[in-house]
Amino acid sequence: MLKFDRVTKVYKVGAFGGGEFTAVRDASFEVRPGEVVSLIGESGSGKSTLGKMALRIASVSKGKITCDGIDVSTLRGHRALKDYYRKVQGVFQDPFSSYNPIFKADRVFSMIREEYYPEVSQSEWQDRVAEALKVVRLDPNQVLGKYPHQLSGGQLQRMLLARALLLDIDYLVADEVISMLDASTRIDVLNLLADLKARGMGILFVTHDLALGNYISDQTVILYKGEIVERGVTEKVFSDPRHPYTKKLFASVPQFHKKWEEVEAELRAKEAADTSTHPYHLEEGQEVPSELVQVSEGHYVQPFHRRAAV
Amino acid sequence: MTLEVSDLRVYYRTLRGDVRALDGPTFTVADGEIMGLAGESGSGKSTLSKSLIRLDGRMRYIGGSVTLDGDEMPIWDDRAMDEFRYKRVSIIPQYAMSAMNPTRKIGKMIAELLESRGVRFRDVRDELHRRLELVELERDVLDRYPLELSGGMKQRTVMVISTLLNPSLLIADEVTSALDVSTQRAVAETLVEFRDREFVKSMIVVTHDISLVYQIADTIMVMYGGRLAEKASAKTIIEMPKHPYTKMLLDSLPEVGVKYEDKRLSGIPGSPPGLLNPPQGCRFRDRCPLADKQCLEQPPFVEVESDHHVACWKAE
Amino acid sequence: MTAAQPLPDPTTAPEEPAVATPKAPRLEALYFALRNPKLVVGLSIVLLFLLVGLVVPPFLEHTPGERYAPPLLPPSAEHWFGTTQFGQDLFTQFVYGIRSTFLVGFLGGGIAAVIGMTIGFVAGYKGGWIDEVLNMLTNVVLVLPTLAVLFIIAAYVDSYGVVTQSFFIGMTSWPWAARAVRSQALSLSSRDFVDLARLSGVRPWKIIVRDIAPNMSSYLFMTFILLFGGAVLAAAGLDFVGLGPNDGMSLGLIMHQAVKWGALQLGVWWWFVPPGLGITAIVGSMYVMNVGLDEVFNPKLREM
């Protein structure tokens, strides 16, 4: 289990590190094996920072991230980190920036071999690569031996997924992996994530796109300005959003068959019908606590002031 | 008709030959129409929108005509286009927000822009203030530097600037794609309001996000491989598309509420054709499940139902 | 997703027209290099001097300090560059001087390049407090009055040859290189492919050497050339004011002696003009080469 326990990230800003900027505050959630958790937020919500912390590219300021019980920030030394990356890997947003432009794209595979499997023979390695490429539905002849600029964004992202497969990882951080791909082919890459999940992989799917999050994930975490405002089983969060920010997000996302006004009217009607007071409603003047409150089984929301405008 | 485009062809010059980025679209935009222009990268949608304003160095006008309110636009003549640009046809460019000179106050920038078009700033100042108010911007943004504004504020400022002279046609090029969903909606709705208040007569909203144009557009035109695939009312495109590309594209887009366990969507196999030496006939042929011999010939873009144009032999 | 032609999409990639001669960014650079007059001329001059300095000395009968000829002879067939007041052959001195000039350039420039690049790369890649400490160090050395330090060192060190001189020059001239390399390395380090290398368990130094440095090889090369030229000039300056090596010969030293023994007043132009021209030609060609290289590596400056 990849567990985030009250994770906070503070960046020092300004001259001499005098100022502070809190990118993530007290975020707690988990990614279980064979489960996709989508981390949904707008730019600046801290969603990518959470992914980077899980990958140890950014450090944790407070709280801890544990992977199968081991505190990630205690991993000291090259050896320990290397072992960690055997279990947890990442794929990033921009496929073209993920490859060193002056080398061939398949270098991402040879790097893995050099570092992790130096004892594997060339022919066996080729078989393994071919096998991994098959899983991500790529034809080795079309992608091996080519430079990144000769391949499409979709092919490059698939190769990165294949790279993760070579390591036989348990968890994958997928940070906006399809947002730069063409509309007609992006869904196939998304489906691949679902296939990896079926193989038992736990996936942290970072996205700004509600529809994508809904399509693929079991759990949803909604981030707003560095704080988790709502999280839980995807169906529950999507069918019954409680936090004003979540509602606003749902009302703003353009849909196909419903116009904005209709969606907004529905949400309004629901709100008007529900006059009861819930434990997550705060009195005027009350501070927003950092603990989320349970709405129903497996659905949590950050307490808010009833008439709070986001 | 505000805009009539006929067989417009604009190619990109490269060392290896011409890239046929825009290959003969013919269509019209009616008075008061907001037309969504959708397509993937390489579909020609950006080339089309740029052609209506200014051909950049590598773009070459090959043929066809563009008529705005009955007057032919000399899009091949950069100088002569000055008569049209900004005054009668205006654009909100994709990176408008970063295009603003950061060292110039916004008010000063607007004044300079107007002077360069032969309009006195004083004559339009009151209108400018009114419109800023309308998009919920304080008058004092004029005394501020672009750096001091948020993304959404900048985008609204640019919208006001580009429509200040009430152009007939406004082209909005991916204006919302860099914005967050919540700001996106406000900007998109402002576009509609500008049309309703007749600041602009008609509008082309270029985007890769069909669900967004569905929210605000009257009609949607889908492009593929430098050509037109389909044009109809927004509702028709979403609910009863006829071109296989439109159908498959829509089927590949997840919508809020769709989960892969219930309904596994699939993309369109293959990738868009290279336009350096595009394949003969229908450009979607290679990826189309319905394609046969007939498709080796280029399908015409014809009206199959009232106000529903499709370029496909198989469309009924 | 099948055969994806790398379609040069005119809408998203306006910078890169479809020139894509796929395999050969390096060959392409060579192609432009051979057609760049600045680079070709600069390189030819530098190589010519280098060749003279390397090849000629073994064929000379006398050492540069040997006093065997009549004094103050103007250039002639016997003594190509004339002789000094002490009857030393100026051509011999000149040739040996070129030798030490290149030695200073390679050694001084090389030491500065190694220190500057190491510090720059580590600071840019690691960031954080390491960056701050290294930055401080760089700034301290940067504001050191280099010449004054060299004066003091030169005055106190006994056996002081060209190698020692190069060493001190190298030790003091790296800061700007460190700064330049740091800023480049910093921007490259934030690229995703560097993160991906980290996630592949690659050690930091290996990432620097194999992922970051190759992406700025042209930049590093140019940095070295500038350091080389800088070292040559610094050495000439020291030599000229009399703080040159006390065992050895250099172009700066020739000029120093010329001035010291009144060649200017006596109108013995052949004593000081050739070494002055030599230094100017070598350093000047280096800078011209640098401009040429910039044009080759930076496509925006290429004249099509």
TrEMBL record, chain A:
Keyword Cytoplasm on entry = no
In what residue span(s) does the ABC transporter domain sit?
2-250
The molecular function terms of the Gene Ontology recorded here are: ATP binding; ATP hydrolysis activity
InterPro entries noted in UniProt: AAA+_ATPase (IPR003593), ABC_transporter-like_ATP-bd (IPR003439), ABC_transporter-like_CS (IPR017871), Oligopep_ABC_C (IPR013563), P-loop_NTPase (IPR027417)
Q: Which UniProt keywords apply?
A: ATP-binding, Nucleotide-binding, Transport
Q: Which GO terms describe its biological process?
A: peptide transport
Q: Which SMART domains match?
A: AAA
State the name under which the record lists this protein. ABC-type oligopeptide transport system ATPase component
Instruction: State the organism named in the record.
Output: Thermobifida fusca TM51
UniProtKB/TrEMBL annotation, chain B:
For this chain's UniProt record, which GO biological process terms are given? peptide transport
Taxonomically, the superkingdom here is Bacteria
Listed A to Z, the keywords are: ATP-binding, Nucleotide-binding, Transport
Q: Enumerate the spans annotated as ABC transporter domain.
A: 3-250
User: Mind telling me which InterPro entries this protein's record contains?
Assistant: AAA+_ATPase, ABC_transporter-like_ATP-bd, Oligopep_ABC_C, P-loop_NTPase
Q: Name one GO molecular function term.
A: ATP binding
Identification of the protein by name = Oligopeptide/dipeptide ABC transporter ATP-binding protein
TrEMBL record, chain C:
Q: Where is the ABC transmembrane type-1 domain?
A: 98-290
What PROSITE patterns does this protein's entry cite? Answer: ABC_TM1 (PS50928)
InterPro entries tied to this protein: BP-dependent_transpt_permease, MetI-like, MetI-like_sf
- Tell me yes or no: is Transmembrane among this UniProt entry's keywords: yes
Q: Which UniProt keywords apply?
A: Cell membrane, Membrane, Transmembrane, Transmembrane helix, Transport
UniProt xrefs under CDD domains: TM_PBP2
A Gene Ontology cellular component where this protein is annotated is: plasma membrane
Task: Give the membrane topology.
Answer: Multi-pass membrane protein
Q: Does the keyword Transmembrane helix apply?
A: yes
Compartments where found: Cell membrane
Give me the segments passing through the membrane: 39-60, 102-125, 137-157, 219-243, 268-293
- Which Gene Ontology MF annotations are present? dipeptide transmembrane transporter activity
**Pfam families given for it?**
BPD_transp_1
What the record says about family reads:
Belongs to the binding-protein-dependent transport system permease family.
Identification of the protein by name: ABC-type dipeptide/oligopeptide/nickel transport system, permease
Originating organism: Thermobifida fusca TM51
Q: What is the lineage of its organism?
A: Bacteria, Bacillati, Actinomycetota, Actinomycetes, Streptosporangiales
